[in-house]
Amino acid sequence: MKRYNKITTIALAVVMLLTGISCSKSFFTDANKNPNAPDPGSIVPGVMLSTVEGALAYMQGGDLSRYTSLITQQTVGTARQAQGYYSYTFTSVDFDNVWANIYTAVLQNNVTMMQIADAGGYNRYSGIARILMAYTLQISVDAWGSIPYSDALKGSSMFQAKYDTDQGLYDSIVNLIDAGITLLNNPDPGNLIPGAEDVLYGGVAAKWIKFAHAIKARVYIHQSKGNATMANNALAELDLAFTSNADNATYIFGNTETSANPWYQFNQQRTDIGFAGSTFTARLTAANDPRLPIFMDTGDDLLLFYGNINSPVELINYDELLFMRAEAILRSSGNIASAQTFYRQGIRRNMEKLGVAPADTVAYLAANGTLPGTVSAAINKVAHEEFTALYLNPEAWALWRRTGVPAISPVTGSNVPRRLLYPQTEYSYNESNTPSATLFSPKVFWDN
Amino acid sequence: MRKILVLIAVLTLSVASIAQTRVITGKVTDDKGDPVAYASVKIKNTTRGVSADQDGNFRIEAEGRTTLVISAANFAEKEVVVEAGESVANVILLPGRPSLEEVIVTAIGIRRAEKSLGYATAKLAGNELLKARDPNLVSALSGKVAGVRVTGQSGTLGGSSRIIIRGTSSFDGDVQPIFVIDGMPIFNTYTIGTTGGTATGGTGVRNNVDFGNRAGDINPDDIESVTVLKGASATALYGARAKNGAIVITTKRGKKGSVAIDINSSVRMEKPLKLPDFQNEYAQGTYGAYDLKFTNGWGPKISEVQDLTFPDFKGDMVKLQAYPDNVRDFFDTGLSFDNSVSFAGGGDNSDYRLSVSSLNQKGIIPGSKLDRYTITFNSGREFNEKLSSRFSASYIKTKGVGRSSQASNNANILTSSLYLIPRTVDMEKLRNNYEDPVTGQQIFLSTDKSGNNPFWITKYNKNGNDVDRIVGNFTMTYKPLKWLTFANTLGADVSTETRFYQVRKGTAGYLDGEFTNTDIFARQINNDFLVTAEKSVSDFDFKLIVGHNINDREIRGTNVLATGITIDQLYTYSNAASKDPTNQYSRQRLIGVFGDLGVSYKNFAFLNLTGRNDWSSTLPLANRSYFYPSVSGSLIFTELEAIKEHLPWLNYGKLRASWASVGSDAPPYQTIFQFTPVTTVFIQYISANATIFPFAPMNTAFSGPRTLPNTTLVPQRQNSYEVGTDLRFLNSRIIAGFTYYNNLTKDQLIGITVPASTGYFAQFLNAGSIRNKGIEVDVTGTIVKTRDITWEVGVNFAHNKQTVEELFGTLQEYGFPTGSGYSGLFIKATKGGQFGIYGSVWSRDPDGNIIIDGTSGLRKTVADKRIGNVFPDWTGGINTNFHYKGFGLSGLVDVRKGGVIFSGTVANLRSSGLVKETLENRDRVFIDKGVVLDAATNKYIPNTVPVQSMQDFWQTLYGATTNTEGTVFDGSFAKLREVRVSYALPSSILKKGIIKSCEIALEGRNLWIIKSYIPHIDPEQNFFGATGVGEGVEFNSVPTARSFGVNVRLGL
Predict the structure, then answer these.
(1) Side-chain half-sphere CA neighbours of B739 within 13 A
(2) Element (H, E) at A284
(3) Bridge-partner residues for B724, per DSSP?
(4) Poorest-confidence range of B242-251, B472-481, B482-491, B523-532?
(5) DSSP character for B770?
(6) Which of A12-21, B427-436, B992-1001, B1034-1043 has the lowest mean pLDDT?
(7) Which value, in Å, is the radius of gyration of the alpha carbons in chain B?
(8) To 10 degrees, the CA torsion angle through B126, B143, B235, B97?
(9) Which of B:210-229 have CB within 8 Å of A?
(10) Which uninterrupted H or E stretch holds B42?
(11) Please, which residues 8-47 of chain A have a Cβ atom closer than 8 Å to chain B?
């Protein structure tokens, strides 16, 4: 009997021990804490800024650049999906990816950074976040028109975001920029200034402020067709924007396969998009443009300046602003001589940036540096040069929609897309709010 | 854990007992007086037993009045009572099936009499798995059990198999049953959902490479039996982890009183089972003009250009000629050697079994190899009447090389590189010219270097994995009183796996070369403590089990992607320009307490109640505890006098019914807002599961989650009931089982897609319910039974109907990501229906005529329409066993009816103009049958517009990226799965030698696709891998093989 008592005691002890484990809280909480994930409280805005800038540059230089350059025939689709896009065969599904990247990778991370920065009094980050938000909205509105913003990026508290009007969003962009500039001019009570993690500007507030004005200038120039006030607004912003190529908003990719420029990555994986066969290339060849061999190797159909492993993705450049200024002058005062100064500077700064030999620049300007005598012809010529300077930049498509330059003859049908389709995910999961749209209508509000 | 071990050790030492014993001797014979060799003689209700010798003589020690249980293959089991004073027991066995008293291993290793179970189970003897065996245990189950559906994923050597029991009940990937070996749950698949990307282990297709499922590590030679627990009532005690059923494996043990050495050896050859039906009339090019740039069949008609020469891929000017077997010639003859040796034996108080096995396979794809070695040890010891222990462990080494990439968006995919070779390419010339002998550069097939030479891929771009794994457990059983047992089983499954992908410099798509190494460590520790009390009160027998379970699963991974190789073919980190390491981690813990009360009345009416409460680490604190009950009962109605009297031909009849409600937890880390480190990888298409996107030259960067976490998750629920009957007629000549089941899985834990404008892809929440109901029928009949001849035929049939009853809120559809490369192809769960394939379909007028475009003459399409169900209407198997004296013949046919399959491979073959059907109409004007909209009348009129070119027709309407309907097929098939012809040498010949038994067999597996509706490919391939929820999509799968060979089994 004694032995049984002993055994019963041991058995009971085992049961109690096991039960003890089940009652211990840390047995679970330890297990449900991922040792590889940081504590949310430990996230500083700097680690988010890298993410937002990288995602933005990758999105713009990736899907958006491919779609818009195929639409504007800066490139040629030769196989698979790209071949369809080149003849303007897009479906809503094709935009799921780029749309999701904009809203999740870029904007949601940007909102998170903004919240952390605002809470910590990190005014530099708060200002940058607003300017990045404004830029992303600008390129998105120009692609889709009305998009969700005031209801968007609210996670589970708002699943069905309404679509804000494109015109209203342009106001929001201006407000974001103004708020951002104010924050950048304020002292930084949180005493946290971005450094190398800010790939665009290394945390320099003055450059961010110039970039902010450049975005605003774009917003106004888009609306300047037949609207001298808007042209004058653009001129006012341009006074405060970039003053040299050193101010360019350029995201430079890395030297490794995994941090490579998106065009480089795409061309490594696929040969679906060609460059040498485009109407863009034909035009540069005809004009004997010295930039052509810098842009591409037409023999092997390789993209060069924008297609190397560490090639830049350019958001806004000084050369674009100079062409913009020429256009704004033409639209407001019609002063062709004044416009020509900036037009020539635009070509120079662009060629400088691309590393064209000075003699070639001089020769090109001698042949192409004079604006014609009528305002409309002058705008046309400025736009042609700006279109070249905006090679592979989605802004080139906005330029075409505003000026009709250069003329595009579609591969099939007679219409060139004026906007992108809303993604299938919005039609599937936010059906009641998502407007119907084709590639041709409704147009973005400034596109008339 | 250490404390438990100490206590177990203490338990082990605190025992001693002595009993009065005597020796019982006897002889086992059949009804004609011939000895029955090696019959098993056991003392009832103990684990003690011996084997009779070859003359039927046995000797066993027992105390007091003893009941012996004697059994042998092909004889009915018999019980003999030996009174206290007696010491001789001669036994006559009658031919027949194993007894109705058959014991089934149920959840947590609890053994129960088959007749007491209130739910359907299926038990397969280990031998069944060895017939024309498949090295993968899961594949070996195919067609053998009603309601268990096995699908191979690819022809990759050591590739994975997916197993679904009673339909897919879940929206997430967790649809596979739990695998349990001797009470120890093991990993079949593992997923790390973590920071910096998701790594999946053993899930089949990841990075489009099939790495196999880890249950495939088990050596089928070590398996004594497999029990398939199908429903929630059967698995209720396992709880959450077994919501998709359980595969309970019992390994072989040494038999007491005998020494046995078994040798089982097979040599098999493999050939491709099905290759595309190619055309052999047209060369490569475009619109009839020869062009090296295109690897297709849209060039000139070969017979019409015989007076000309053209450059081939090497630049030689040649006269065009079709090579009808060029693709077939690419493949090698596969060869596999499967050997196993086991040593088993035991004394009165202990037994042991040691087995060693090797599997060495060389696949049909050049350079593909699989080697698996296992060592398994199983030993038990009865220290005395009260205390016993058992230890079993397996070490497994699996190494596979040459696992080809599949699917799309990868220049390294073998199937498309191979199948799309122009018909005019001489495979021998290609084999000798894939690498420039001087420069070492690849010789490409097309001038634009868009695809890779298949020989280059198989020679230089190898993917593989290397698994080292130990699975083991230790059980102590202590029986202080006759009615009371304590048992504790502690086990572990620990494995490390290294995966590698290598891409040589100069490979299209990866010109700089790259490699990826993934190291995965997976560990599962499980402890079950059970107290069992048994008591009889008059006609009632009670059995109460109270138990406790601890389960801890931890998976760690490191993934390093290295790109930019400097020195060719040196795959070291220091030789790579950039290295991107990622950490992966996942851990979850579960604690459960459970009880199980069984009551039986006069051994013919049974009632069982179970309850279990789990605490899971993956749920929010407030909701982490959940309880689930089950109740089941059975009635052996043939024990009733009235039935016995009126239905004498019904020798056994059982009615069974059960109900269960089972809860389950979430994957780890779904309740916390997690920031994840941003790594870089080119990922053109992203989904809710991807946490990666590229960024640049950089510092540390973090991103918020893509799926919104949820702090209010509650456990998922599965409510189910089943009813059924098991019947035996005409002295068990006909055995039949019928089951109806109905399962509702609700409050599912899924990431519901939200509009990206919320800033997220998905939110994790409790939503959706899926009902699966169906019937299962098993019938086995012994058609002929004489002294020399037996012939049995068995049929199983299962029908399952899945209905998505609810999604989230007003949501009508839930889409599963399929990846890219498809023309808007989706797998979707639709409210009120089954999971279906959606995509673009032919546009039809109200009368159902296909609408043709009035300009191009091509069919018009509309996007996002349902094309068909993913899952079959029914599945079944027919097996037969025929024996004449020592000769045996067995076969198995597997049948699937219904469901559809999209084939990307077929789409590629057709749009490239390489297969037979694309020959039609090439030489003439083709006007497609359909209607065009007449602009004048706005009515549909018959089409008269010709197709411009058949190249346009096939490329536009049948391309993988252009249209879905054209490449969706009925997924029904019938396959001859197994055939085995054997001859066992009669014992009269063997009597004198050391060989006790010897059987020689010819066998074959996957021999013949009897019927299939899919051209060019094996219908049993799937892109999604074993854990994916999706089915019905194939894309560039590695072709499957048929195998045949010789098997020899020796018993020493």
Answers:
(1) 32
(2) helix A279-286
(3) B656, B739
(4) B242-251
(5) E
(6) A12-21
(7) 31
(8) -50
(9) none
(10) strand B40-43
(11) 8, 10-11, 13-15, 17-19, 21-22, 27-29, 31-38, 40, 43, 46-47
The CA distance from A387 to A262, in Å, is: 21
Task: Return residues 399-428 of A near B (CB < 8 Å).
Answer: 423-426, 428
pLDDT score recorded for residue B238: 83
| 3-class DSSP state of B535 | strand
Spell out which residues of chain B touch residue A103, defining contact as CB-CB under 8 Å: 756-759
CB B19 within 8 A of CB B348: no
CA distance B136 to B124: 15
Q: Which run of H or of E encompasses B126? A: helix B126-130
Q: Which of B387, B503, B526, B758 to mutate to test the interface with A (most CBs of A within 10 A)?
A: B758
Peptide bond preceding A442 in cis form (omega within 30 of 0): yes
- The helix (run of H) or strand (run of E) holding residue B881 is strand B874-884
Mutate to test the interface with B, among A33, A92, A159, A313 (most CBs of B within 10 A): A159
Residues 234-263 of A with CB under 8 A from B: 251-260, 262
B328 φ, ψ (degrees, to nearest 5): -60, -40
Q: Is the pLDDT of residue A176 over 80?
A: yes
Beta strands of B786-833 (E only): which ranges? 789-806, 813-816, 826-830
Q: Predicted ipTM?
A: 0.86
Q: How far is CA B222 from the centre of its chain?
A: 18
Residue B147 φ/ψ, nearest 5 degrees: 90, -5
Burial class (CB in 10 A: 0-12, 13-18, 19+), B928: middle
State the burial class of residue B519 (Cβ atoms within 10 Å of its Cβ: 0-12, 13-18, 19+): middle
The predicted pLDDT at position A93 comes to: 82
Tell me which amino acid residue B308 is. L
Helix (H, G, I), strand (E, B) or coil at B83: coil
Structural contact between residues B902 and B972, judged by C-beta atoms closer than 8 angstroms: no
Collect all residues with Cβ–Cβ distance below 8 Å to B110 and sequence separation of at least 6: B237, B530, B545, B596
Joined together, the tokens standing for residue B635 give 């009635």
Which pLDDT belongs to residue A312?
93
- Report phi then psi at B915, rounded to 5: -110, 160
Determine whether the interchain pair B674/A108 forms a contact, defined as Cβ–Cβ distance below 8 Å.
no
Q: What is the pLDDT of residue B120?
A: 86
Q: Strand, coil or helix: what is B363? A: coil
Mean pLDDT of chain B: 84
Read off the pTM.
0.81
- The CA R_g of chain A, rounded to the nearest whole Å, is 26
Q: Which two tokens stand for residue B233?
A: 């009532």
- Confidence band (pLDDT; 50, 70, 90) for B696? very low
Closest by CA to A29, choosing from B763, B615, B527, B765, is B615
The 10 Å Cβ neighbour count of residue A234 is 27
B628: part of which helix (H) or strand (E)?
strand B625-636
pLDDT, tens digit, 9 for 90 and up, residues B930-960: 999 888 898 999 999 999 889 989 988 887 7
B885 C-beta neighbours (distance < 10 Å), count: 11
Alpha carbon distance B748, B751 (integer Å): 9
Q: What is the mean pLDDT of residues B786-804?
A: 92
Best of A52, A151, A256, A266 to mutate (most B CBs within 10 Å, chain B): A256
Burial of residue A331 (CB within 10 Å: 0-12, 13-18, 19+) is: buried
Token pair of B263, please?
Answer: 């040798």
The secondary structure of B72-117 as a DSSP string is -TTB--EEEEE-TT--B--EEEPB-PPPTT-EEE-GGG-EEEGGG-
Residue among A253, A257, A430 minimizing CB distance to B564: A257
Task: Please determine, for residue A52, whether its predicted confidence score (pLDDT) is greater than 60.
Answer: yes
Which segments of B242-400 does DSSP mark as H helices, in order? 326-330
Judged by a CB distance cut-off of 8 A, whether residue B18 touches chain A is no
